[in-house]
Amino acid sequence: MGMKGKFLIAMLMGAVLLLGCQSNAERYGEPLIFTTGTTTGVYYSLGAGLSTLWTNEMQKRVASQASNGSIENLKLMSKGEANIAFTTVNFAYEAYNGTGSFKGKPYKGVRILANLYPNVSHIVAKNDKRIQTIEDLKGKSFVFGAAGSATEIESKLVLEAHGIEPDEVKGNYVGFTEATDLMRNGQVDAVNIYSGVPSAATTELISTLDTKVLSFSEEAIHKLTEKYPWNFKYVIEPNTYDKQSEPIITIGQYSAIVIDESVSEESAYQLTKLLWENVEELSKSYSIAKQFDPKKAVEGTAGVPIHPGALKYYREIGVVE
């Protein structure tokens, strides 16, 4: 082989090595990939806002990407195709422990960066004398939530905790908008609106239709919090919704930002600090941010470890010792 051929091979090998280094740098350095949710959901728009904030304030680019949400985000992170993601604590727990959707494929590298706001089950039912409790939904038509969503999974657990098997109701699998339409058209008796408090969909249903939010039984609360460590008892205070003079007893779990353990302690610290120091600014554009509270950022993590960089910040502000 002539000198020219050897030179070309050396050039190609150098280019391959360079490309290899670049893809590695992208995974562990620039940019950090933040997977969010579907383009119509709160995760997507909030993720874009956070990415812009982080990129502007850090010496590091954070790129937000649309996805199918909680489960897919964790799968992408476990494969090294993302560094940061939105999810709910139940899926982070399943990923870390290799159960449920991650059975036999534990993702031990997942870490909590911050818990943001609780998703709360609002079991909204027709104001019918025959429906006074959740147990009364047996044999009725019920919206579980969109197929494959966190709402669907939580709805099944809620019914089971009240002694109702999923096939003992006439099930519907649609999102909040369609569920509201079905309720309005009198096609279903009840729906689980699984979202932050106050919930826009619940507010709309309560104010425009003769409906009510049902409380959980204490026995069901006990089952749901004992068996599923991501759940906690949640009280919706009186007058949160129209015609609601009494507190509503329900359960919640947190929506969280998770991060891969490979992200440096310094980067995780900066991400956490910038998030919490800009909550007021974020809440001007994203109403959900009004529910963010740094004092609750490490509550209800169900044993999923917190990233050391985030932990450093929480120690500084006195949230953890």
From TrEMBL:
It comes from the Bacteria. It holds the Pfam family NMT1_3. This is TAXI family TRAP transporter solute-binding subunit. The keyword DNA repair does not apply. Residues 1-25 form the signal peptide. InterPro entries: TRAP_TAXI. The keyword Signal applies. Keywords: Signal.
